[in-house]
Amino acid sequence: MVISDFIQNYYIDPIIRGEGYNVVNTLTYAILVVIVTWFSFKVIEKLKIKIDRKFVTAFLPWVVFGTLIRLFEEAGVSNSYLLVTPMIWIESFSLVFVLFLASVFVEKKFKIPYYKTLSAVGLVLIIFPLVLILSRLTQLTGMIISLALLLPFGLIFYFVKWKLENKLVSMAHIFDATATFTAIQFYGFTELHVVPRLLIGAFSPVAFIIVKVLVVVGILLLIDRYSDDRKCNK
């Protein structure tokens, strides 16, 4: 198999045909995520930006924005290959990264905090895709089920003493999990990612929620522990 055929079979065709992910492209994207994450943290460190509550809340509108754009295909707004995963996330990250750097420049030039600029632009841009999605929303039952499943986790986080940014990140991921569960369990959708697909096939869609909660919360706890250790060593 020549390189062009390899790229076509494992990277291009899954996007064009809507086949989802395979082991090869999943590993490739995972490696790229690690590299990009490392690079991003180095840039943030170089710019002397603190990863705190303001940092997290500044990026939350962009997570919602990317998710809404990702829903364009399912909602029938667009069937462009550029608006499906992983393309939409590559494009979203590129846009947000450029705007983040621009916001830092604005802060240095005009003394306007970067997080205010970044979050404000994100909140404004959310309006357009949100209106389009809501205008095509015909099935409210699925949304009610997803939110009902999310509610117990919200109550738990309300009473648990933890950083607000960690709670927000966790709730965003858990909502994704409950929405995925609802779509698969009640509406005949399929999971596109390799590991979740195997997990759901071996057990049930509810296993996806459980595992995602454990993984996300576990990673955030490790990040907190690592950050605290670094502070103590300085």
Task: Name its key features.
234 residues, mainly alpha, 80% helix
Structure commentary:
The chain is mainly α. It has 10 helices and no strands. It has helices at residues 3-16, 23-46, 53-70, 72-75, 87-110, 114-135, 140-159, 164-187, 194-202, 205-233. Helix 3 packs parallel to helix 6, helix 5 (87-110) runs antiparallel to helix 6 and helix 9 packs across helix 10 (205-233). The mean pLDDT is 87.
DSSP helix fraction: over 70%
Question: Termini separation (Å)?
Answer: 52 Å
Structural class: mainly alpha
Radius of gyration equals 19 Å
- Unreliable sequence segments: none
**Mean pLDDT, as a whole number?**
87
Number of helices: 10
Overall, the morphology is globular
Record field, number of beta strands: 0
What letter string, H or E per element, gives the SSE order? HHHHHHHHHH
Biggest beta-sheet profile: none
Question: Strand portion, in percent?
Answer: under 5%
Helix and strand arrangement:
Blueprint: H1 3-16, H2 23-46, H3 53-70, H4 72-75, H5 87-110, H6 114-135, H7 140-159, H8 164-187, H9 194-202, H10 205-233
Helix pairs in contact: 3-5, 3-6, 3-8, 5-6, 7-8, 8-10, 9-10
Write a concise synopsis of the structure shown.
This protein has 234 residues and is mostly helical. Helix content is 80%, strand content 0%. The model has no long low-confidence stretch (mean pLDDT 87).
